[in-house]
Amino acid sequence: MAACGRVQLLLLLLLLSLCLLTVQALKPLPGFGNVHLPAAAMHQQFRAALPNPGNNAAAAAASSGSRRPTGWKLAEEQACRDDVTRLCPKHSWTNNLSVLECLQDKKEVSSTSNDDDLLWNYKLNLTTDPKFESVALEVCTSTMLEDLHSQGEVIACLERALVREAEQKDKAHQIKDECKKAIMRVAELSADDFHLDRYLYFSCRDDRERFCEHVRVSFSNSFLSSMHTCRNALTTRQKLIAQDYKVSYSLAKACKADLRKYHCNPDTSMPRAREARLSFLLLCLESAVHRGRTVTGDCQGEMLDYRRMLMEDFSLSPEIVLHCRGEIEAHCSGLHRKGRTLHCLMRVTRGDKGTVDNLCQTALQTLIQSADPGADYRIDRALNEACESVIQTACKHIRSGDPMILSCLMEHLYTEKMVQDCEHSLLELQYFISRDWKLDPILYRKCQNDASRLCYTPGWNESSELMPPGAVFSCLYRHAYRTEEQGRRLTRDCKVEVQRILHQRALDVKLDPELQKRCMTDLGKWCSEKTDTGQELECLQDHLEELVSNCRDVVGNLTELESEDIQIEALLIRACEAVIQSHCHDVADNQIDMGNLLECLVQNKHQREMNDKCAVGVTHFQLVQMKDFRFSYKFKMACKEDVLKLCPNIKKKADVVICLSTTVRNDTLQDVKDQRVSLKCRKQLRVEELEMSEDIRLEPELHDACKKDINKFCSSVAYGNAQIIECLKENKKQLSQVCHQKIFKLQETEMMDPELDYQLMRVCKQMIKRFCTESDAKNMLQCLKLNKNSELMDPKCKQMITKRQITQNTDYRLNPVLRKACKADIPKFCQSILGKASDANELEGQVISCLKLKYADQRLSGDCEDQIRVILQESALDYRLDPQLQVHCRNEITRLCAEEAAAQEQTGQVEECLKNNLLKIKQDECKTEVLNMLKESKADIFVDPVLHTACALDLKHHCAAINPGRGRQMSCLMEALQDKQVRLQPECKRRLQDRVDMWSYAAKVAPAEGFSDLAVQVMTSPSKNYILFMIALAVSLLFLVGLLCGRITKRVTRELKDR
């Protein structure tokens, strides 16, 4: 092989002879079209440019006059015969170029001077060929005029022409394939020695001596330059390497064994141009690395250099130069170096600066796949420089160059540690990585087997129309959340990586290719002003019903997925970190969420650790869930079969909840043995009902009906904590009819099931734990009412209980216990009032007032009497619990009892004030109400709290054996008052005397309206026994007189009778 050491120079000249037919079509450079040199002068310049292979002048002289015969073969020469026979395949011996290629690849033997002379003569014969002179004269005239070393300029000129052809869309003058191969082969053969590329050598000679004085001369080590000419020469060489990796000697040598090992060598069935491209080599070897195969360190080092080279200079990728020319000129001019132009194009592709052509986007995606910056962020110089400070602070625990660096940066996106330049560069790169799952090396490594098994994916650097790269991830995440019953699930490691990618995609809607593709129109229509972080997806969810079907499907699927694993919403989880750590850490640590974390956040939405961002995010997701019951994962899984069976055509969650809860209520009222709604669904239905009670927006029907009233009466009240609902309740009398009716129905439901009364349960949470731990949920309010006056009762809870008591007393329908106890008495005694009732309006306590009067008449059933007694006792302590008294005596209370009404604690002082000022009351309706109170107090001393408090000791001493009710204890006290031998407490005696006077006045003002009322007055009178005795005495006397005196009437004769 030693005899062939100078083959490179010979091939430089051989190229020119092979290009004779092609370069005829190439035009001279502008400005030099009319310049021609004599052939002899050109020949002399070429001869001068050739290096002298020693001091053998005779050989050189002889070569000028003699030429080899036409059939001369290099393999037949004695100097090269042994090397050719030993090293080169036999079929190549007849082709001089094939022999030269073979010997170029084999460097084991040093050259001899005889072989140098042989090759030198062969080269010289080629250079003096008249055909070569004529071609050089036409194509490279301007080059030769500028540079004495015109031979090197000719090669450089042809190389630049080859590069220009790849970068131009209009190929008017194409170089023939044979000539292209020759040019590239010349570049390959000159790659191992810097001197062999004469144009590069002379352009970069000074720079090489300045920067690379101690570096062994080799082309791959000469990539340093500062001068413009040298930079251009190096750029041309880099572009040639991009078209044929063998032009880089160091890369071809370092990766030769790996290329052969992983079958990356040229395939006869493929076009040579594809296999020789640098991108093909990188893709093939990167595929091996991603599959976990071993690639030598030297080869990986060379690959890293060239991947970095591709990311730094977009012009090295002819497809980008060709297809992205317009975008570069419009948006990215002047940003050529350090990868800035490439990132600018990425930004345009994201839509941040305009639009981009599909061919340009494809070219960018191909480049990113070839360079594979996801495997090592340092390849992307622009990203590396922009994110250096963030990496040093937020990701310093990760080894430099590790693929997890990009994931770490994504985790800190939109945080305080992130800087703006890094944020932009990171999102620009992630935009392309998100569109090909293979560009995330960790995801590919953990999920390649699952993707092959479940998604039938092709190889790493292969493609498939049935399963393009962007569709693979969609396939993976559809399998990631399958249950064991559904089968075909992902492995645990792959699922973790899929969740990681979903978390990242939730940060920016543009990182979800399918979402952006299908929802481009809707994003522009509904969400053009939503530019803040995470707002675009929220906007799409808010307008779910208005979206086109394709967009609605993908947004619905993503929302359904988030309901199962809310941690996908990285921004929400980040905002809720404090609440999660304090209240939900046990469910957050679970690898399988199953909707538990979101449920925990909803339950703790009003904890002190909850900030505004977290509360808004959780509420937003609750509102989105109302659009479709499938968006509530736990509800969907618990009630899916029940919905299909009982509510098949209902989709909205609120309607489904109403449908199922109505079914449950009907089955309960009818005492159905086997409930139609399953137990697990009933339990989850309860959770959903409780959550919906917290915010009026979670009950769309109620919210829509009361929207105008909310704006009118509750505009300053914040949503959440059921505050809007409470505001509407307080302004119930002023509400519109539609809203009033809805609020009344809501109150009716809450009174039947107090656990749905969010405000009551929130304010009285601690008191419920203290007093009502053993009470049933439906008896919670009843329990709180019984303990209302306890010294341990919280004032706020007591105030809330009073509000609910006032509400209950406005209409018997809002008191389920009373309604059940008096179901026979109400239609019997109050039918006239029921005839006037409507669903939209309360009865303002009329039915309860009717029952009170019947209680005083002692005509109610036992159960109803007990409930009315409780109501009388409660309203006697607080006038606000008597709606009729409030309605008719509002002005009198303000005029006569303002001080008592203003008291914070009501203990019956307002009622006592009205009784004491009975003679001063002007309004007849109010006077009637006060008289009714006096009448009711005669029936039971407990109804008169002031009298009961004053006579408590006397009741204990004198009436302990008498059962309360029906006026028995009051009669006992009146008898004690009349008995001079009984000594009552002074206060009790005074209060009793006052009551006697009031009753006497009441009897005068309001006489009995009929015999029944007269009988009731007698029976409830303190002098009942005396009155009854006198009535009995009168009847007895009348009977005796009639018995003794006989008939007073005249006897009638029989004759008169018989007429």
TrEMBL record:
Cell compartments where the protein resides: Golgi outpost; Membrane
Signal peptide: 1-25
Highest taxon listed in the record's lineage: Eukaryota
Pfam families linked to this entry: Cys_rich_FGFR
GO molecular function, one term: fibroblast growth factor binding
Keywords: Glycoprotein, Membrane, Repeat, Sialic acid, Signal, Transmembrane, Transmembrane helix
InterPro entries in the record: Cys-rich_GLG1_repeat, Cys-rich_GLG1_repeat_euk, GLG1
Topological category with respect to the lipid bilayer: Single-pass type I membrane protein
Transmembrane segment boundaries: 1026-1049
GO terms for cellular component: Golgi membrane
Keyword Nucleotide-binding (UniProt): no
This protein's name: Golgi apparatus protein 1
Native organism: Cyprinus carpio carpio
